[in-house]
Design a protein that fits this description.
- With about 150 residues, the protein is of the alpha+beta class.
- The chain has three helices and seven strands; from the N terminus they run ααβββββββα.
- It has a four-stranded antiparallel beta sheet, with no helix packed on it.
- A hairpin with a 2-residue loop joins strand 3 and strand 4.
- The protein is elongated, with a radius of gyration of 25 Å.
Amino acid sequence: MRHFDLTPLYRSTVGFDRLFSMLDNAGNESNAGYPPYNIELTGENAYRITMAVAGFAEEDLAIESKESILVVKGEKQVEEEEEGRILHRGIAARAFERRFQLADHVEVRGASLKNGLLHIDLVREIPEAMKPRKIEIRNANEADKQIEATAA
């Protein structure tokens, strides 16, 4: 992947630090393909991240949400070797850490592990002060009467 120098943008903008950091780190993810995941829209303001974590138990996984970053870590506990020898190991059991950048006002609602799939439910809750509101347009004469009535 090509690397772009964003330094000139840092000098000429204010308040976009987080955006530029995201762009800088976009191509630097290690284990970019592991574990595979889906991001789905499950409602108007609801999302679900589904990760394929076959072979990991609940105690092997950790989910942490801090500021606007969701971090999912997996580390398989060391098992004693079973009686038989393994001739081919195709099921990955390597440790991983996957980070997701969350938009403003997106919160983690819960997580569940079923059939080797980790489901993380997210909801965007916009505060009332930031929701659009309708402004009533009144007749100019009515507005003047209202102002006079409160001033007296």
